């Protein structure tokens, strides 16, 4: 059963090891545990639905409404743990076909209802939260439209319902010998339609591309009609309508069908870990490697403090001691940075890619440690979000944020971002533990993915106030230092106020013109992406 | 000196060899030579400019106006050869800075003048032709804004003026050890701004990407203000404004600065030719090769009739006889198809890519001929447009058109397209020589690039009437058979009527909404891209 007040399946538990708790206590102080609400308590707060004439496809069940009321941002987490949800949708629509989506749009227009398109509910930026409003609000969940509809095996295109989540996508493709290869950290729960709507990026985007490269066409139901986007390998026939949809976050329409570019399953895949002696050499090494176009499928780099944190929080301290001794002998001591890379493909190509990567990294003092840590990364690639539970139970709040910038600015922005978080609670005398990795690298630059751990204080109100300071401070650091407000999480409500810095007033007005074109009454997810 | 009535530099002459003329005469009949007009004759037809208060940056010179009046479509060619230009711009603006572009926009608004943004004037789809109108028309040429402004060597981003043409881009980059790697066939004359505005694709897009992947950001001057698009390696912050600009064909604004992703010059580059025994095996071979992700930098495949035509029109018949004998011995006889591929990069990777490509192609009966023909392709890669002159002087008209579709549809669409052209003049009892290659391949599908040679008839009017039949027939075949109306030439005026089939009425309306947003008076290139 999926958790109603946190991440993932109830059966998956990732606890913080005792030595990890000590590590954090030394850095930022002893944990502060806040009491959790029960589901019964929250159910008692769900108000009667305001829907006068609910459509047959809409559930008014209190638990269903509760389970669709919040995403996975830290404010969502706090609201769920405290049991203070504030606003619930008046109903949850569960269509099974495009025709039913169109029916629901017509119904919403007729009944003057606001609709919130909903995929896996994994937003960390406030995409799917109903707001207090005079009009009733219905969450339109696409979870029942999760089937593989068709594969064009010559063109390597698969057609899916928009509500297929990561495991549903991969299991249906793998049964036929194919893969999409799109693995965001939210993969277990997030959906194809959500990936398209929010411009998602997967951990192996170096090989498979971001969702922008994987999305081949499909259909969107809008208040102005159905927009069908045919599949072409490429086209010069005017601006690409796919790109208008990518990142539209539900403001233009409800995605009813998604066609994606798939790949045959690779013969071989391996992940490796290399330790670089310090951050400057690690940063230059990773840039050189990606700009040399060595065909890797994954490449990420933790900074020194993240490397240290990962080793400290790992569940096998004895092994880590031996690893540290070995690394120190080879020159990777205090300040070392862990790089992980993957090769995916045929054996000959993988062997050459590995050889070239090793050779190049050796030139930067890299200590190669083989596949052991790479395998660990691969096995635990979707476990990080579960760690929020382990940390919370130990009395710590954790959140992440991310951006991307050109290589010439990566180090500067990373420092500004980490500093903004590290000092955001200084007025309260609170320490914040901040660490970063580069998770998606490109010839031009890199994403920057920063995690921060802080103490929630003595109440939920205090925890939220601390988060707001941290978040605003970090977002300001990003937009004032040439970063994009999001590389992979999207805009939602939380990032919308910062978006004009990069889009310009004119760009925002253009997006608003498109939103008005497709949704004249502004009935779809108002306030998401664009503040109006 | 650039030709005023045809392609390229006057000093470059590509004649049709005598045996090439015989080859065509046997296929479609003896050539029909039409008389050319002189420039003096045309200059005498340039009317007085209608500009009441011309801006200082605008030239009213008759020859300058003549030289900016037509592009390179076949109707343009016929108009230029006949000397019947019909409409000339009332002036040609030659700004040198973004500020001057903004001045010109303000002036155009004040004077109620239509503006046509102009790059290299190489459009083959009627992008830059002034139309008869009550308002005066000024062509806004960006040719003076052709400088490399800045290189960010860490991020591999170069900033250029929008008017830099292919040689200006490459020579300024190569002097610093870099390349853009973007080589459309029009490279000698077409410009960076034009590539962006029309979603251009270069011959080595397999390595470097299309202009969509190379375009990193820049500035556009619009009637609603300046749109500055910052550079990010990737972003999830809403729809990508770059993608709204790509393919906008001057309808939204005038591009004043272009930032592009560049590469370090590769250590080694080679091109190879392989002959496949027949079209079905060749088609499967090229699809298999690209879907196997072998890192090639170029991959193209001529169908049997193009292969035969290329060998027949080549300038060295004795060598060709020996080549044919060798190929026949190896199993590539009548019906054989020539594939050309390139490897670009470091020696180890190139060696492996070559080995893997050869091995795979051998499985399809491919006969490898080494670098000789590949080198010839590389040396002559920009010469094909000059052949229009050689053919014209021999009494033949030639035109090309192109599309792209998914692999499962390539063979079908190619046949429909070729047949539509081959039979388009049947009512006049005229033969059309039609041949095709796949010039840009993707995992999902391929572009289809078709050339057709026909006799112009006894007059320019007859030649134009024939072209119209051919063009309409082919465009119908494309849009009725799941092809995009253009893979690399853009929409312009010639393809605009066919665009709604793929964009949908709703998609067209969305693009129109953007055009109205940026250019409320519809003063920029009206009728281009969108028929309104």
UniProtKB/TrEMBL annotation, chains A, B:
This is FAD-binding oxidoreductase. PANTHER family: ALKYLDIHYDROXYACETONEPHOSPHATE SYNTHASE, PEROXISOMAL. Belongs to the FAD-binding oxidoreductase/transferase type 4 family. Residues 85-265 form the FAD-binding PCMH-type domain. Keywords: FAD, Flavoprotein. It holds the Pfam family FAD-oxidase_C. Gene3D superfamilies: 3.30.300.330, 3.30.465.10, 3.30.70.3450. SUPFAM superfamilies: FAD-binding/transporter-associated domain-like, FAD-linked oxidases, C-terminal domain. It comes from Paraperlucidibaca wandonensis.
